[in-house]
Specification:
Oligomer: single chain
CATH class of the largest domain: Mainly Alpha
Largest sheet: none
Distance between the termini: 86 Å
Order of helices and strands: HHHHHH
Helix content: over 70%
Number of helices: 6
Strand content: under 5%
Number of domains: 2
Amino acid sequence: MQTAHELFLHELGDILNAERNLLDALEEQAEAVTDEQLQKAITDHRAQTEKQVERLEQVFEDLGEEAEEAECKGIKGLVEEWKTFKEEEDPSEDILNVVTISAAAKVESYEINAYESLIQMAQDMDHSKAVKLLQQNLKEEQQTLKKMQGFAKKIKPELSGMEEAEEEGRESEGQETGRARSRKSTSRRGRKAA
């Protein structure tokens, strides 16, 4: 890789790969969550992602280039992180909803940074059509991130289990305090006897 144009094409291929991989991940996430509004938001974002893929392909076409993907390890890792949690941690429905919101926010933040970088490169090279298409994708990613942040405030895991853990903590704390008192009074009695 020797030129800014080659770098731009590489980064474009990277985000194209990310968006295409997200199509499958979003479908899986929509099926996994139980909150209907969250499910709809994910399904809507999947439809939006299909349009984003089309815009990226259009950028390649406008540049007279083949739409070649470069493996996006960042998004691949974030998707894998969510899948691994779902499969290995056996989360409750509430916890899976919360983890899915968090995973979506991480992905959106990653994509926002990628698009901002691409837009800067496109502006530097006077690719005005590319700038407009990339800005549309960026705007949608920013809107989705805001939606996910809204869900994060609204959807909370059930607190059942937390009260039990706190109660157990208080009980064991009480037992420790009782033992300490007992040791102190025993040592006082021992000193008096001496």
